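Possible regression after last week's pipeline update?

I re-ran a chain I had predicted before the update to compare outputs. Posting the input and the new output here so someone can diff against the archived version. Not blocking, just want to make sure nothing changed silently.
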Amino acid sequence: MSGSSRFRTLVLIILAVIPWPLKRLVYRWVFRWGIEPGASVGVCVITAHHVHLGCGARIGHFTVVRNLPELRLEDKAAIGQWNWITCGELFTNGEAMVTPPKDQGLFMAPSAALTSRHYLDCACGIFIGEYAVVAGVRSALLTHEIDIATSTVICEPIRIGKYGYIGSNVKLTPGSTVPDYCVVGMGAVVVGELTEERTLYAGVPAKAVRSLGDARFFDREDARVR
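New output (post-update):
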């Protein structure tokens, strides 16, 4: 890490504890974040290089966003407390033995939500669709791994479709895709592309269990579940 990068990181750590109105001004005018009306950031450290927070987007207390090329939350997208969201320096400084993808970071569509105490590896892009929820606690979304057979690094994006629901302690492996209007049950491991919409997936690896039909969760027009 260069001297300028260390200084930038130190400033962002100090900013974490100052009141939001002042912090908002510094983020916008010094770091050139795009911050729309009603957006807010709690007591947390964010060292992403490019940040956009849409109208009403929010990031909760004690979340760490480390070294992301891009963090983009569209209108009313939300990240809760105590999350760790990271991109290894190998994937941003050119030392990794893979070509970094064009879209590298975390991208959350309108009204998408990430709750609390999750781990996201954003070496490749993670895309969370509108009204989708990474719910519960302790899920891990991993976009890179080592191919043992070839001793090389594999780096592939993760995509969660609109109105998707990811339960507690779920693992999404590199290249995982969850279709629109689907639920991934607690403790499942998603490997590769799931294909059937309006379906409950569960198990290791995750398999289709049953159809969910016209579940009301998939028709809501409010991000909150009452």
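Follow-up from reviewer: compared with the archived run. The two ends are 45 Å apart (CA to CA). Marking as no regression found.
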